[in-house]
Structure formats: structure tokens, C-alpha cells
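Schema walk-through. Below, the input block comes first and the output block second. Nothing else is stored per chain. Lengths vary across the set, and this one has 174 residues.
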Amino acid sequence: METVPTLTTTRFTMRPLQPGDEHVLFKSYSDPDLMRYWSRGPFDNVNDLRSWLFDRGWGGRTWVAVPHAGGDPVLRVIASEAGREISEIGYMIVPGHERQGIARECLTALITHLFRVDGVHRIFGDVDPRNIPSNRLLEGLGFTREAHLRDAMKTHLGWCDTWLWGLLEDEWSL
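--- output ---
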């Protein structure tokens, strides 16, 4: 597993996941509305979430965004290798921090790091078409919607479509 370097933005330090973060992140991952478009349903208890978050076998890296002024994490972002020089990204906001530009700010730092430091050529995101805020975020970051896969995944809600969003290194201008 690759190391998780600390990244900084104007307002946040993006650091590796640490024991105890699961208690704050449980607010997100136990929320049926926030988990509606995930591949699994909400977590019922913090111990199951802890096991899932800290599972070293999943093959990706996790950062949590903490305000420079201190306090609890407000966002989790991930990057996983999906092929040679290809990464998939994901993100989950902590309730109460929506619509403040946090995800955009932190994903900008992550994407820049993946392209400029890690040498990634392509980044993609896999988003349920009904997840309007997430789709708007990727579009606003310059991603191109490349595919609409019908009944791409069976989840706790049944069969769900997905939109695949892609961004190439030479398209990144932020």
C-alpha cells in the first residue's frame, strides 16, 4: 500500500486516516440519505465502519480533511489504483459541512497531487446519475461524462445505473 502524504489547501490539512476518525465519519456512513448512492447500505455500528475504513486489503489510500484551525474531520477522500497510471477517486462529506466548497477544494488538491506528484495519467469517478451534487462537482472540476452504464451494479437499493466521469492529466488546469 502506498504512503498517504499530507496535503494542504487554503483551509484544510488532508492527512491520513487515524484511529478515532471513524467516530466522526460514522455520521456520514450511517446516514441513509448520504449512503443512498453507495454500493452498500448505511453502517449500523461504528465497529463495522472501523473495520471497513481500516481494511488494508482494499488497495487504496484515504485522506481526511481537517480545518487548519483544528477540530474533527469534515471530509473523507480516497484514491485507488485502477490500472497503470489510472486512479479512481471517491469522497464523502460529514453532515453539516455541505455546500461550503470543501469537497471541491480538497479534491482539487488531491487531483493535482495525483497528476503532478504521482504521475497519474487518468482519473475517473463512478457516480449514480441520481446523485446530482456529486455529478455537478465532477463536472465543475473539468471531468467529462464518458459513459452511462445501465444496471451496472446491484446495491442495497436494487439495480442502479452509473455515470463514469474521466479527467486526463493534460486537461487539468486548476
